[in-house]
Design goal:
alpha/beta; 7 strands; binds S-adenosylmethionine
């Protein structure tokens, strides 16, 4: 049973990560303004009230994360799970990579991808430098830096936000309680470097887990991270979430984290239709992505600044999209949603 000392350690680490993320962003933004002023985004000033709301949202997220571990939804060790040595070794690379990011910003160049990429292998919307990231999602270099960059971007809250899919996932799988744990199949769509699968493994030690992503470079990184878990043999598949290479009804549950804001609206619906097809009747879909204007109007300025700072071409449309309605259109029922700091989590069931 986790104790108060462990809780204090977790809170302290989260505060440390938060301060580190803020300091990194402050220094790098000032440096960009100094060295490449044309690259500096024009952000909307953030009022002290919103900063306070962000701070308390972050504290509430940490508290809920702790409580769910304490309730036994997942082991408390997951709260401390991070490749620290690896991140320390890669941190200088984040700085070395920054000037090329600034140049892309300055030149408004969002199609700067590796030469060996075969464009016909990907949907057009994917062939961009999301977040002005070097090589987009299409190189081992990009995959090596991604987790650390996300960690800094979200001030250390990326995994606590990903873990918000675990409670609805476990609740949804309750309807298959009669089946052996090893017969439960869970697919993580757009698994990236596998951080969500790592969280799910903590909550479902025996389930069959599969990850799908369009980027083979990100899947290679996922393979490296996940293989570190004792006994894990990662099942990772390269493919488009709009046309997934799996049989109908092959999964009891599907998760999908931080994909939808990077898809055009039609692709969002296609992915939901696919998830519906892949679930067994009674199966559960759990989605997590950015909060939206309708549920979190108090964070409108933060959403606006996110769009201005990072190349996120579909974000303005996403934050106005009616995901509940899309889930219903795909055929889902029992749609519920809740917001945790900057993440909205939807869960929905395929009718029996
Ligand atoms: C913002 S990252 C999120 C990754 C991961 N779920 C996480 O929590 O870190 C978006 C991921 O979606 C993948 N992706 C984007 N469009 C896709 C598509 N149509 N099919 C499959 N994967 C896609 C990208 O390759 C990338 O790994």
């Amino acid at each position: 049973m986790p104790d108060q000392l462990t809780k204090l350690a977790y809170q302290t680490i989260q505060q440390g990560k938060g301060l580190f993320g803020l300091a990194h962003k402050e220094v790098s933004t000032r440096l960009m303004g100094l060295l490449v002023p044309d690259a500096a985004p024009r952000t909307v000033p953030v009022e002290p009230e919103m900063l306070e709301r962000l701070r308390s949202g972050m504290a509430a997220l940490t508290e809920l994360d702790w409580q769910e571990a304490e309730r036994g939804l997942y082991p408390a060790s997951l709260l401390f799970d991070a490749p620290w040595l690896d991140w320390a070794a890669r941190y200088p690379l984040v700085w070395l990579d920054m000037p090329s990011t600034w140049m892309r910003r300055q030149d408004r160049n969002v199609r700067d991808l590796p030469r060996d990429v075969e464009p016909q292998a990907y949907p057009d919307y994917y062939l961009q430098n999301f977040h002005h990231q070097t090589d987009g999602y299409l190189s081992d270099h990009s995959a090596a830096l991604y987790d650390l960059q996300v960690e800094i971007l979200f001030n250390g809250t990326a995994d606590p936000m990903r873990r918000r899919v675990l409670a609805p996932l476990l609740r949804g799988l309750g309807s298959f309680a009669g089946r052996p744990a090893s017969a439960i199949r869970v697919l993580d769509v757009a698994t990236g470097t596998g951080r969500t699968l790592r969280q799910i493994r903590g909550a479902l030690p025996k389930a069959q887990l599969v990850g799908l992503d369009l980027s083979s470079a990100y899947l290679r990184q996922a393979n490296r991270w996940l293989s570190q878990l004792p006994g894990e043999l990662p099942q990772l598949v390269q493919g488009n979430a709009e046309a997934m290479p799996f049989i109908d009804g092959g999964f009891e549950a599907i998760t999908c984290v931080f994909l939808f804001h990077e898809l055009p609206s039609e692709a969002r619906q296609n992915v939901l239709d696919q998830c519906f097809r892949l679930l067994v009747p009674g199966g559960t879909l759990v989605l997590a992505d950015s909060v939206q204007l309708a549920d979190s109007p108090q964070f409108e300025v933060a959403m606006e600044n996110f769009r201005r700072v990072f190349h996120e071409p579909y974000y303005p449309d996403y934050i106005r999209d009616d995901i509940d309605q899309r889930l219903v259109s795909a055929g889902f029922e029992a749609v519920t949603a809740s917001s945790h700091f900057m993440t909205r989590v939807w869960s929905a069931r395929k009718p029996r």
